[in-house]
Amino acid sequence: MPSVVVVGTQWGDEGKGKIVDLLAERADYIVRFQGGNNAGHTLVINGRKHILHLIPSGIFHEGKTCLIGNGVVVDPAVLLSEIDRLQESGLPVPPGKLYLSEKAHLIMPYHKAIDLGRESLRGKTRIGTTGRGIGPCYEDKIARRGIRVSDLLDPELFGQKLKEILEEKNFYLQKYLGRDPLSYEEVYETYLRYGERLAPYVANISEILDQARREGKNILFEGAQGTQLDIDHGTYPFVTSSNTVAGNACAGAGVGPTSIDYVLGIAKAYTTRVGEGPFPTELRDATGDHLRECGGEYGSTTGRPRRCGWLDGVILREAARLNGLSGLAITKLDVLSGLTEIRFCEAYELEGRRLSSLPARVSEIYRVKPLYRSFRGWQEDLSNCRRLEDLPSAAREYLHFIEDYTGVPVVMVSTGPSRDQNILIRDPFRA
Ligand code: GDP
Ligand code: IMO
Ligand code: MG
């Protein structure tokens, strides 16, 4: 009856969706616990690509239950269109297959307007957010003026709350951000309709998970974003607005820390980042372009080209510590094929000092110089490798070094975007 948490160890887009889809076969429940539709998790099943933003990546398996926990911020329009899209592609998502926490906060139209308004006002100092209203929604949650899923189900209460909040938001939108105000009636009517459609999905997720544990079910928690985007531990302020570390699986789904058995960190064999902020191992050269093209590194949510660079051991070690990683899944190893040399950042240098962790101040992170260890590359195509022995010795050396350096065993290696392109070394559900 193990519970496994999957988290990103870098700046997101490590391939969490693919790994969660793979592990979902062994799980009974798949749970999102933070973030919102800033996430874009890609699954390739039978040659067909699916991108999920809110619905957990276990949805393509029969007989599994997908849960959206209280820690997720939910744009109801996006959730409903995701349900509709799956239905159109022949996969019905009825209540029972998917549940939504009654305590999850709703992304409202003013959250999106404020997110976009602030970013354009900031100009050069922008964060490079996804523009989905994530930050402003979490702000309202913490400020205790958020609207939750359960509020939507009580039209009178919802109306009162919306009226009060909208007055303040419209003032801010018009007077500070120079944007159009939102109409109360329009938002009210639209959201009530969303509420009616979502009502059958609404549930107490904590109770469902408690019951599941008592019945000895396997639970898989699906993190979004990555450790360096964590609101506390990431490269602040160039982060997202939630805790992305494994510990938040508990608060964000309503389970206790004693119920987590295994934490799987997902790491790309190199590093990428979307949006602004420091990125010590970034390659602004032909090798960076090579990684972007070979890895198809374009955002699954916004389509933006991802910044690419070498694997950064310093942030991997931080991820091991901050998440308490039990194992690592290394993804996109196939993308490194064809390079003559592969580099791995072992430490940073700042003003003559060697650093083995990231400074807290972003102004300092911008100035660190990566210190690299060099590995020989390999030319072989890895996309058909299914066992460690199938990998060229240079690739195995690279993986062994990552294990030694981080102190975390590599338990899975992904060698392509499809569900079956994996080397499974140890099953996290049987660890
Ligand atoms: P997530 O946000 O962590 O779920 O990752 P994304 O889906 O945003 O980005 C990962 C991208 O890499 C997607 O396009 C995946 O289909 C693709 N991908 C995942 N694993 C592999 C792999 O091992 N090799 C290759 N070539 N592509 C992969
Ligand atoms: P998945 O789950 C990569 C980044 C944005 C921006 C910063 C803040 O697919 O790995 P936000 O809209 O959250 O306020 O933006 O965080 N970001 C992601 N980058 N993958 C993600 O999710 C991301 N979600 C947010 O690009 O830099
Ligand atoms: Mg993604």
Automatic annotation (TrEMBL):
Domain of life according to the entry: Bacteria
Cofactor section: Mg(2+)
Annotated organism of origin: Thermosulfurimonas dismutans
Binding site for Mg(2+): 13, 40
Lineage: Bacteria, Pseudomonadati, Thermodesulfobacteriota, Thermodesulfobacteria, Thermodesulfobacteriales
GO molecular function, one term: adenylosuccinate synthase activity
Name of this protein: Adenylosuccinate synthetase
Function: Plays an important role in the de novo pathway of purine nucleotide biosynthesis. Catalyzes the first committed step in the biosynthesis of AMP from IMP.
Record gene name: purA
One cellular-component annotation, GO: cytoplasm
